[in-house]
Structures are given as structure tokens and as C-alpha cells.
Amino acid sequence: MNNEYSYPLDYDWSTEEILHVMSFYQAVEIGYEEGVLAGKFEEAYRDFKEIVPSKSEEKTLFKEYEKVSGMVPYLLIKQLKDAAPSDIIKP
Fold first, then answer.
1. Average pLDDT over residues 63-77
2. What pairs with residue 37 in β-bridges?
3. Is residue 22 part of a domain?
4. Could you please report the per-residue DSSP string of 18-79?
5. 55 exposed, middle or buried (CB, 10 Å; 0-12, 13-18, 19+)?
6. Where on the tree of life does the source sit, at the highest rank (predicted)?
7. So what's the pLDDT on residue 89?
8. Which of 45-53's residues contact partners 24+ apart within 8 Å by CB, and which partners?
9. What is the total count of domains within the chain?
10. pLDDT at residue number 3
């Protein structure tokens, strides 16, 4: 992961929460670069949702992330519905 941008984060989150959200963004990047195991991605997304339960806050963060990275997390999330945990997902 050699990104040249800052992840959209809420600095009211604890260090642990920030690390979980960053792990989710990194899972998105892995999905875009080489594909990510659906089970691993689902776990990262589940952790993300514990920190960002609000759909509107999620959308705001995803838009900010897309703006700085060019990657759309929703494209990977959408694939989870039909994927087995051992499947590789990639937009």
C-alpha cells in the first residue's frame, strides 16, 4: 500500500477505532489491486460498521475516500452478498 493521500477519519475515534477503519480502507485497496478474500473483507467491513453504524456517515466517508483514492468501497461491499468467504472479490 503506497498511497499518497490521507484516509478520511474522525479524530474523535479512539486509536483502536482509527486502526480498524484504516484496516478497512486497506482491504479496499487490496481488493482493487489484486483482489481480496471475501471473508477477510467482510470481517474488515464488520469492524468498520461497529465504528460507523450510521449509513449517512458511511456514505460521507466513502465519498471522501473515493475523492482522494479513486476507489469505491461500495463496489466490493456489493459483491459480498453473493460471495463465499473463500471467494476473491475485486471490482
1. 96
2. 88
3. yes
4. HHHHHHHHHHHHHHHHT-EEHHHHHHHHHHHHHH---HHHHHHHHHHHHHHH---HHHHHHH
5. exposed
6. Bacteria
7. 97
8. 45/77, 45/80, 47/20, 47/23, 48/20, 48/21, 48/24, 50/20, 51/13, 51/17, 51/20, 51/21, 52/21
9. 1
10. 63
Residue 1 scores a pLDDT above 80: no
Residue range of the domain that includes 53: 15-89
Does residue 48 lie within any of the structural domains?
yes
The CATH number of whichever domain residue 53 belongs to comes to: 1.10.220.80
**Structure confidence at residue 82 (pLDDT):** 92
Residue 37: φ, ψ to 5°: -60, 130
Asked if residue 69 belongs to a domain, the reply is: yes
6: in domain: no
